[in-house]
């Protein structure tokens, strides 16, 4: 919200997550094999509480992952990110490609609009409604991915031709702001991730070992 990207992140997340949500609700909500609590029966399809709970959990996990990635890609300063990657030992072409990929992610909606306009000029008919837009998105995703990969490869080749793989110290004209609170937050998040993983893995391993011993 402070970066001013909340509306763009929300719109992009909705476009990405909506097809997954529809698929999850149809598959797991109606045909969940382990469902026992039947809420409604529609012929061979059964709406079960367990299936809906599994579908909602799947959609929430997907939405969380997509939201975090899109928020980061739309908020990060690409020039500062590239400088930080290079200073930490990432090869310059690879660092630039990673930074450029994140920067390009922020312009996916504009690129898809241009691809759709080009396809419509060639005769693609987009039917009204959500179903029509989802059907048209299938034909737009492939050229979008190819364009992003091709552009990243061209930039990496141009950097290599300009000597970015040569050894020796480099001078950057971009400042890398890294305050004490930022460093503390990074280490705190890393420690929290380790703690969360350990809280899941350690009991599971201990239970497996005790079950084997028993």
Automatic annotation (TrEMBL):
- Tell me yes or no: is Zinc among this UniProt entry's keywords: no
Keyword Membrane in annotation: yes
- List keywords of the entry alphabetically: Membrane, Transmembrane, Transmembrane helix
- UniProt superkingdom: Bacteria
Q: How does it sit in the membrane?
A: Multi-pass membrane protein
Q: Where in the cell is it found?
A: Membrane
Q: Which InterPro entries does the entry link to?
A: ABC/ECF_trnsptr_transmembrane
- Bilayer-crossing residues are 12-32, 52-74, 94-112, 187-209
This one is known as Energy-coupling factor transport system permease protein
- Naturally occurring in which organism (per UniProt): Sinomonas cyclohexanicum
């Amino acid at each position: 919200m402070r970066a001013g990207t909340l509306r763009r992140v929300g719109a992009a997340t909705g476009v990405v997550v909506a097809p997954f949500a529809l698929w999850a609700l149809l598959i797991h909500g109606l045909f969940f094999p382990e469902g026992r609590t039947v809420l409604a029966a529609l012929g061979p399809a059964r709406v079960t509480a367990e299936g809906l709970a599994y579908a909602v959990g799947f959609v929430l996990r997907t939405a969380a992952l997509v939201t975090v990635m899109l928020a980061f890609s739309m908020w990060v300063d690409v020039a500062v990110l590239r400088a930080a990657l290079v200073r930490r030992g990432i090869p310059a072409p690879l660092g630039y490609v990673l930074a450029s990929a994140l920067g390009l992610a922020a312009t996916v909606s504009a690129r898809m609009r241009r691809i759709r306009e080009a396809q419509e000029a060639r005769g693609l008919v987009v039917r009204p409604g959500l179903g029509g837009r989802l059907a048209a998105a299938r034909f737009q995703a492939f050229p979008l991915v190819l364009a992003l990969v091709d552009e990243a490869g061209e930039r990496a080749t141009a950097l290599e031709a300009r000597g970015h793989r040569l050894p020796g110290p480099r001078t950057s004209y971009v400042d890398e702001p890294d305050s004490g609170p930022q460093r503390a937050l990074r280490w705190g998040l890393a420690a929290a991730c380790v703690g969360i993983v350990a809280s899941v893995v350690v009991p599971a391993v201990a239970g497996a070992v005790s079950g084997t011993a028993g």
